[in-house]
């Protein structure tokens, strides 16, 4: 995608995309997406953490940095980096339980507590691998503060990986 096409794609798809407090994720195709931040320092720190994690097998592959041109509607999420798409553990846990994979849809159809309990059960069943993930990240100097099923991924090789590399 060219920069103008990328900007239009992000603008059209950001709202409703997965997001956290400081970032948005927009899928570009079935293999790659872009994580977007309001400030380049936050983007750079997260990208560095994810690159370190990828190098030891506990994070998704990282592509290059992208700074999108700002738009007239005060678009703030313009500093990004490319990241390989992995399955979100929360979606997998809901699919395995026969529920809608989308968290919001699952909450609407079955209630928040059902969604939360399914995620908790998945974490309990995979606790040894999650503990190893935490240990590996801590050895890199990164503490995985927000370790819940929406911030844990499963890569194409079936490994459990971190997908939230916030600096706080």
Strand order of the largest sheet: 1-2-4-3
Structural class: alpha+beta
Please state the oligomeric state of the protein chains shown.
single chain
Distance between the termini: 32 Å
Radius of gyration from the CA trace? 16 Å
C-alpha geometry:
globular
Major sheet attributes = 4 strands, antiparallel
N-to-C series of helices and strands: HEEHEEEHHHHEE
- Overall mean confidence score, pLDDT: 88
Domain count: the total is 1
Count the beta strands: 7
Helicity level = 40-55%
Low-confidence stretches: none
Count of DSSP H/I helices: 6
Strand content bin: 15-25%
Polypeptide structure, described:
With 168 residues, this protein is an alpha+beta fold. It has one domain (3-162). 42% of the residues lie in helices and 18% in strands. It is built from six helices and seven strands. The chain has helices at residues 3-13, 40-55, 89-96, 103-110, 112-125, 127-139; strands at residues 23-27, 32-37, 62-67, 79-84, 87-88, 152-154, 160-162. The chain has a four-stranded antiparallel beta sheet with strand order 1-2-4-3, covered by helices on one side. Strands 5-6-7 form a three-stranded antiparallel beta sheet. A hairpin with a 4-residue loop joins β1 and β2 (32-37). The relative contact order is 0.17.
């Amino acid at each position: 995608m060219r920069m103008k096409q990328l900007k239009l794609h992000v603008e059209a798809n950001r709202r409703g995309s997965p997001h956290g407090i400081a970032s948005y994720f927009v899928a570009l195709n079935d293999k790659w997406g872009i994580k977007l931040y309001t400030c380049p320092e936050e983007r750079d720190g997260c990208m560095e953490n994810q690159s370190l994690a990828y190098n030891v097998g506990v994070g998704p592959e990282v592509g290059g940095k992208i700074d999108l041109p700002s738009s007239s509607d005060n678009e703030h999420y313009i500093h990004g980096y490319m990241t390989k798409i992995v399955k979100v553990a929360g979606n997998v846990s809901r699919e395995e339980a026969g529920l809608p994979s989308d968290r919001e849809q699952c909450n609407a159809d079955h209630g928040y507590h059902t969604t939360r309990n399914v995620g908790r059960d998945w974490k309990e069943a995979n606790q040894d691998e999650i503990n190893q993930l935490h240990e590996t990240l801590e050895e890199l100097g990164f503490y995985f503060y927000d370790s819940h099923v929406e911030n844990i991924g499963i890569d194409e090789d079936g490994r459990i990986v971190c997908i939230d590399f916030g600096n706080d």
